[in-house]
Amino acid sequence: MIAQFFTAQDWHGLTAHLSRLSNADFRKAEKHIRESILPSVPSNVFWQALLNLIIFKKAAFITGMLALKSQLKTDTNTIESKDARDFGSKIAAECPDSVPKLLNIALPMLQTEKQISSLFSIFAVHDERQQIAALLKIESPLTYFVLFKTLKMIPDNQDIVRKSCIYIMKRNNDISYNMVSILKAYFGIDEMKSQLALRLDTYELSYLDRNYDTFLHILNGKRPRI
User: What residue spans of the chain are helical by DSSP H?
Assistant: First the structure.
């Protein structure tokens, strides 16, 4: 029965139906929507439904953003769509406290720098320091690459680079130590003590922002391809 509301794009009818359910039935419906319906509906329906569901009951439906992973397999440009932009602007206006949570859910699923840029754009997260705060929460080579490029955009960035290094070091693994090594070497953070896993020659620093593949190569402890 719930699927018919998605087919008709009847969001008022959907939320009215959900509001009449018992607690037990509501939990079953929420799981069915999150795991079965949202991953499989067309892209425009996904964004419209998720918008209405989060506004209706954000605590229950904010994790519906997990279905973005399936949506991206069907349409890699879905985050650039008008429906995505409408979703982001309305969530930012009506449920601004949901934006950091949605970023935290969505960022690990993204596969390109362009997708990350589009995600920040739909939520109007244009301030580099806000972007850095979101990126630091995610441990992936791609978010590390975008973090590196974003740090470069900030004037007088020594303090925020230092704080970023401290945050990343707490992960206590080889990739995090390599990332800290990259930041320290590139931005000249000499006075900060850390467990260095990667030593870079001066010539290698100029290759870091050539493209993501080159950055990933260096992050993994390999010499850049010249």
Answer: 2-8, 11-19, 23-32, 43-61, 68-74, 82-94, 99-106, 113-122, 128-136, 141-152, 158-169, 174-187, 202-205, 212-219
Residue 65 near residue 102, CB atoms below 8 Å? yes
Q: How far from each other are the two terminal CA atoms of the chain, in whole angstroms? A: 59
CB atoms within 10 A of CB 107: 20
For 45-86, the pLDDT digits (tens) are 999 999 999 999 999 999 999 999 999 999 988 999 999 999
| Number of residues written out for the chain | 226
As given in the structure block, the two tokens for residue 213 are 């593949």
Q: Which two tokens stand for residue 107?
A: 């960022």
Among 6, 147, 157, residue whose Cα is nearest residue 67: 6
List the domain boundaries for the chain: 1-126, 135-226
Tokens of 153: 């955009």
For residue 200, what pLDDT band results from cuts at 50, 70 and 90? Answer: confident
User: Nearest 5°: phi and psi at 41?
Assistant: -75, 160
Tell me the average pLDDT across 184-200. Answer: 76
Residue 15's pLDDT band, with cuts at 50, 70 and 90, is very high
